Amino acid sequence: MSSAQELTTKARTVRPTAYGSPDVLEIVSMPIPEPAAGQVVVQVRAAGVNPIDWKLYSGAFHEVDDEHQDSAGLADDLPRLGLECAGVVTAIGDDVRAFEVGDEVIVYPVTGAYADYVTAPATSLIPKPADLGWPEAGSLMLAGTTAVHALHAAGVGEGDTLLVHGGAGGVGSVVVQLATAAGATVIATAGAHNHELLRELGAIPVTYGAGLLDRVRAASPGPVTAAIDCAGGDEALDTSLELVADRQRIASIVAGDRHVVAGIKALGYGPGQDAGTELRESARADLASRAVELRILIDTVYPLAEAARAHRAGIAGHAPGKLVLVP
Ligand SMILES: NC(=O)c1ccc[n+]([C@@H]2O[C@H](COP(=O)([O-])OP(=O)(O)OC[C@H]3O[C@@H](n4cnc5c(N)ncnc54)[C@H](OP(=O)(O)O)[C@@H]3O)[C@@H](O)[C@H]2O)c1
What we know:
The chain is of the alpha/beta class. It has helices at residues 3-9, 51-58, 134-139, 141-153, 170-181, 195-201, 212-219, 234-243, 257-262, 277-282, 284-290, 307-316; strands at residues 10-16, 25-31, 39-49, 85-92, 104-107, 117-121, 125-127, 161-165, 185-190, 204-207, 226-229, 250-252, 265-266, 298-303, 322-326.
C-alpha cells in the first residue's frame, strides 16, 4: 500500500501498553474500522475523560501475571480506553435506519473512544444538539447519566435539602444543577477554590475535611433530607449517616464494602451495587435536550496524543470540570 493510501485508511488510538500509571499510554495507528450490521462508525471530534479510564489500566481491578501476555508482551485483557465521545457518522452498517452519514452525534456507551474513529452500536447514538459544543457533547453523558441515577436513587425533589460531597466535579456539578432545578436546597462540598463556582451553580458551598459535620450543620437552613456522595471516603459516608435519617436517601457513586454494609444506595459495578443501566440509558435523550441550559464545565481540552497528560491532571483530583481529548 502506498503511503498516500495508508494516510486515508489509518487512524490513531491511545492504548495502555501495560497496567500502571499514565506513563504506560501510547498512541498507535489502527485501520479505520468498518461497521458490522447494526453498527455505525463515528469520526471522533471530542472524547470525554473520566476517572474510570485511568482506574481501568491502573491495575486496581486486575491481577496480571506473565502468562496473560500476548506475543508483543502485552497483557491480553488490557482495556480499550474512552467510554464516551461526540463526532460525525462516517459509515453505517446494514439495518441502521435512524442515522445517516454526516449526522452529528453523541456516542454513549461505547469503548475505544480515545481514537480518531470509533465503532458503536446504533443504539448508543443520540443526536447532538446543534448549539452544543463538541467538548461539552463529548463529555456530558457518563457524568450526566450518573448524576441522574444518583438523584433518582436518593429520591431528590422539591423541598429537599440535599448534601452533595464533591459538588464541583464532573458528576457533582451536574447533580447540583439538576437538584436545584428540581426545587431542592443544595449544600455541596468542595475546596475553597471552587466555592464561587458552586454558588454560581446554585449551591451553598462547604469546605470538606476535618470538622465537615459541624460546617454542614451550620450552613444548612434545615434538616438534611438526602445525600449524594461523589467524593468517597469515610468522612463523606460518616457525615451523611449522621445527618440523613433515612439511609435509603443516601447514595454513593464511590461506594466500597462499608457503604453496602451501611445499607445506603451503592451505585456502580462492584458487589452489592446498582449499575442502573436502563435508567442511565433512558436518561440520555433528556440530558441532551437540557445540555445547553446546563453548565457542562470544561476544565481543559487536550490533543489526543496528550492523553497521559490529561490523566495526570485527572489523578491530581481537583480539576473544576471535565477533561476532554480532541483528535
Ligand atoms: N459509580 C459510578 O457509576 C460512577 C460514575 C462516574 C464516576 N464515578 C466515580 O465518582 C468519582 C467522581 O467522578 P467525577 O467524574 O465527578 O470526578 P472529578 O470530575 O475528577 O471530580 C472529583 C471532585 O472531587 C472533589 N474532591 C476531591 N477530594 C474531595 C474530598 N475529600 N471531599 C469532597 N470532594 C473532594 C474535587 O473537588 P475540589 O477541586 O473542590 O477538591 C473534584 O472536583 C470518581 O471516583 C469516579 O470514578 C463513579
